[in-house]
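chain below, 172 aa
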Amino acid sequence: MHFTKNKILLFFLIAILGCFSEAYSQNPKQTKKREAFWRKMGKKKNTLKMHYEAKSYDHDGDGVADVNDHCPDTPIGKKVNKLGCAIDTDGDGVADEEDACPDKSGPRQNLGCPWPDSDGDGIIDIKDDCPDQYGIQRFKGCPDSDKDGVPDREDKCPDVIGAPWLQGCPEK
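prediction:
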């Protein structure tokens, strides 16, 4: 920061003169002289350079000062981004060093990898009641081969269209 000596002096004098503001403002000629004087003082090039350098601490030693560090307890030796947090390329919240799939987003429970969908029906295996059979969302990933509204695992007649109240079998 740079302050002119005159501006510092001006600040203190204004503060002192502020106590006498009524007397100061009652004499217009004197007021104009003082204003001109202070304008002139403010334009002088004499400067007082004040240099202040704050000490920045980095308690976890990751190279990011504590004041800017969003992850202040990063383990020593771990690669970090400009915020001081472990690098996470895919943005899934699992650091690359711990992420089994650093280029694909996935939950921490699955080591940072996406949950698989073994049968390719669009329902991840963890939510799929029939993960080895292509199924539909309505039946949590289980198939309904005859499309009668009864999933095959509950359908007593899975190859014939039947009534749901008859467990997928036709009326006799």
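Residues 2-49 form one domain. The beta strands are 2-4, 47-49.
thats it, cya
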